[in-house]
Task: structure prediction
Amino acid sequence: MRPILITIVLGLSVLASAQVSNTKTGYLFRVKYTKGQLMDYRMTAKQVAKKGPALLITSPFSMRVLSVTNGVAEILASEGPVMLNGKQFQPLGTAQGEMDSRFRPVNSDLRNTTFSGMYPERAIKLGKTWTTPFQLQNTGVTGKMVATYKFEGFDIVDGQKVAVLSTKIVGPLAGGGKTMVRVSDGTPQRMVLTLGLTYTQPGVGTKDSNVTIEFGVYRK
Result:
């Protein structure tokens, strides 16, 4: 079975500097790019099926802001090598393009990815939720998926003040967890998701594939 989460990490490899700022109507999550900024992450994804061996995927990834023009950044993102059960599965890969202040590609070779447009359009109050389309590329998972984020408040993680977002995914790949975003620059500090894969069988309906994925992203 092809690892379902082999490219989910690409969504994070296009993140850039942002700020979580307090306004009269709530907290505004926006990207504030800084030329020359480099961020490094590591990803782990464990895929477990009731039948068959477990798969462990690991990969480093980084992002560098090359330039900023009117709030839009030119970004060089790299990922890999991707390791599957300790052996190289994919070599180092890079992509370059423009992203706006909500992590959306702008006339860019950077694809819409898992976290594209993750931030809400307007300021958000504590305890409130918002939804965005949720996409996975080159995973074999098809069908509409939606992510619902809830702004739960603030915490200290790894010595950093973070905004905590509970995250719920609905669709053929469904589950949830938490995303922790640095207040100082808006980049993810840590993310943990537990996801299950379902499929639709004609005449029967939606069924559980008995595949579970434990996915984590960590700031170096």
